[in-house]
Every structure is written in structure tokens, then in C-alpha cells.
């Protein structure tokens, strides 16, 4: 739209039409009348008007995109959840059982009190790198059929990243919570707060304060982003968090979390994960056919632990993906039609000390 050919009144009317085209909270609509009144006053000065109009237009565009009333319908099927969790995660039976209990509580609350807001505990997955913390949180969204918002906390040094900046500042915008809701187009997503123990030292206290508000069901039904400047209901969202350890997490935050320990994988579990989960996907991702790369069964021990012990499966995943990439290169170059990993060539395909 070319603003230069619009009159001030036409521009204001266009903003009003945006508001009227969606459903917003009634008192928010009333408060916007003040914004339109201010624009009308500024219309006497053309330069001032268009500057304020651009700010107001951006603000209203964000407001109408927030899912104030839209939400997804939960899949509360325990059998489906069990199958999905088993398909996505090997082992971790105690963790998966806790997720099933979690879904059972949601289902029971919905069946017995359909008009009541469902309150679920906030799960904190604690474990070493690569033990499945983030993917387990993603699985909760998957089995419930909810959208997922992932907010990384690694190195986070400014609480405004979470709750936005006031519109009085140039280039102000909403925080990651509101941006996540806009992207999810749903008011009841799963919000994953990833690596909450890795916040920058100089912002630890203030960010922990924001977390208290986010995770407390008595407060998060009226979460105020500085940019939006109006309470947003987060009580229908499911929050999950991850960390490597809990030593840097404030006591007030820990009081609102249920800790779930993610155990390290044994070599036997890693072999099963590598063989049955990672390898088939890596074959497909590399553009290979299953018969073009075969791993001799007695080679899995070296693939799992070529450079020493690793609690998680990230090194294993990198090793397998490396095998597939090297195989794809050799096959594409026409040097081989099929590769079998065995004692004679394993050192060529795996990293060595």
C-alpha cells in the first residue's frame, strides 16, 4: 500500500478495519480508541502523523496476529501416546511413564470439568548433553497434537528478549513469548524453555524473575509483554524446561517445577538407538538406499564409542551421519556401488585419536 496517496483519515480507517476483522478482547478494543484519537490529533502535522502511523500500524499488526481465542484440540489418547513415545524414544521407560501420567491427568480434568482450565505441572528435564531432554519435550507436543514453541536460554542476557520492549523506543517489538504465540497461531502450545541454567550471569536474577511469572499458574493468566502492554492469557499453554543441572536455577523457580532426571545411555542402549532409530534416518537424509550401506553387527561397539564415553547420543549421531556422508560421496563418484563397514575399513569411516 502506498502511504503517499492515502489521506490521514483513510489510513486510520484502514487500521480500524484490521481491528474489526478479528476478535479481540473487548477492553483491548476500547483501549485502542485512545490510539486512534491520538492519531487523529497528530493528523494536523503530516510528518508527525506518518511517523506515529507507522508505529501504530506495526503495533496493530502484532495485536491482530496474537491468538487471543484460537487453540488446538488435544489428542488425549493414551495408546496413541505410548506408541508415539516408543517410536520416538528407545528406553527411558520411567520418563515415558511420567509423560503418560501427565496426559492422563489432562484427560481426566477435561472429562470431569470440561469448562475448567486444565492445570498441568511444569516438567523440568535434567540431564547431560544428548540424553534426550529437548526431544522429550518435543514429544509432549507431538502426542498432544499441540504446536511447539522453543525458546533457547543459552547465553540469554536481557529479560526484554522474553517480554518485549515498550513501544516508546525505536524498533521496539514483542518478546519471544508473544512472537512464539503468533507463530504457533494457538493460545495453548507447548512452550519449551531450553537450557534455563545457561543464562548469562549478569541477567540471572531478572530472568529468573520473569520465569517465576511465566511458570506460576496464579500469574501467567495475565502475562504482560511490555510491547503489547495488555495481559495475555498463558494459562492454557503447557510449559516444559530443560537444564544440565539445577544449581543456577532460583529456588522460587524450582518450587514451580517438577524435576525429571534423564539418565545416561548404556552402550547397549546406544547400539539399539543407533541401529534402529538414527541409522535408518541418516540413510534417507544422505540420499542412500538401505542396501548401499551395511554395517556389520559386530562393528556397532566401535561406532558407539570410537573416542571414549559420551553420556548422550549426539556423538553417535555425528558418527553415523559421517558414515553416510562418506558413503554417499564414494557412491556418487562411482567408486563403489555398495559399502559394508567391517574391521577392514572402519577406521577410514570413523574419527580416530
Considering the chains and any ligands shown, give keywords for the structure.
353 residues; elongated; 3 domains; alpha/beta; 9 strands; 10% strand; 14 helices
Explain what you see.
This protein starts with 7 loop residues before the first helix and ends with a helix. It is elongated. Helix 1 (8-20) packs antiparallel against helix 2. A hairpin with a 6-residue loop joins strand 4 (223-224) and strand 5. The protein is built from 14 helices and nine strands. It has 353 residues and is an alpha/beta fold. Strands 2-3-6-1-7 form a five-stranded parallel β-sheet, sandwiched between helices. A two-stranded antiparallel sheet has the order 4-5. The protein folds into three domains: 3-65; 78-261, P-loop containing nucleotide triphosphate hydrolases (Rossmann fold), CATH 3.40.50.300; 267-349, Helicase, Ruva Protein, domain 3.
